Amino acid sequence: MGGICSRTEARRSLLIEMLTERLRHIEEIFPHIVYSCVYSDCVLASHPTVSEGKEIDEFLNTLQHIRTTATHFASSVEINLLHSFRIEGTSHIIACYMIDDSHMIAINCTSNSDPAFNVIQADERMKTVIVPPMQELIVQLVAL
């Protein structure tokens, strides 16, 4: 019986490691990443791998609030599915991409003053290059 549990835990660890590796690829799309994570009710994977600290806690609390607000707003304007949302400030961008109904990729990066950076193109790359493989990994992780 212990062998099955240990194999399941080993598989879970491998999937989380693979999610973390995919998060590293986000730096190719969004420069100046401060923190990115796969988030549900808690952080499943993050890059850089920081699991605690005041700034991370504040980001996650803000993220939960933004997610709730965005979902309520989307439903109020009759948008049934919210696939992504982004908030751009003078010094930071917070971008979130839904993987499924309860998991999302969250990115916190400093705003890039590089005129060549196009946030719309970055969004499209996230939706085509990053999100689909992460969806597959989350499906496997949830199935464990």
Q: Using only CA atoms, what is the Rg?
A: 16 Å
Structural class: alpha+beta
Portion in strands: 15-25%
Query: Please, what is the average pLDDT?
Result: 84
How far apart the termini lie comes to 15 Å
Counted by DSSP, the helix tally is 3
User: Regions with pLDDT < 50 over 5+ consecutive residues?
Assistant: none
**CATH homologous superfamily descriptor:** Dynein light chain 2a, cytoplasmic
Specify the helix fraction band. Answer: 40-55%
Overall shape: it is globular
What is the assembly state of the chains in this entry?
single chain
**What is the CATH C-level name?**
Alpha Beta
Largest pleated sheet: 5 strands, antiparallel
Second-tier CATH architecture: 2-Layer Sandwich
The CATH topology corresponds to Beta-Lactamase
Describe the protein's architecture and organization:
The chain is α+β, with helices and mostly antiparallel strands and 144 residues long. The protein has a single domain, classed as Dynein light chain 2a, cytoplasmic (Beta-Lactamase). 49% of the residues lie in helices and 22% in strands. It contains three helices and five strands. Strands 2-1-5-4-3 form a five-stranded antiparallel β-sheet, with helices on both faces. A hairpin with a 3-residue loop joins strand 3 and strand 4. Helix 1 runs antiparallel to helix 3. The model has no long low-confidence stretch (mean pLDDT 84).
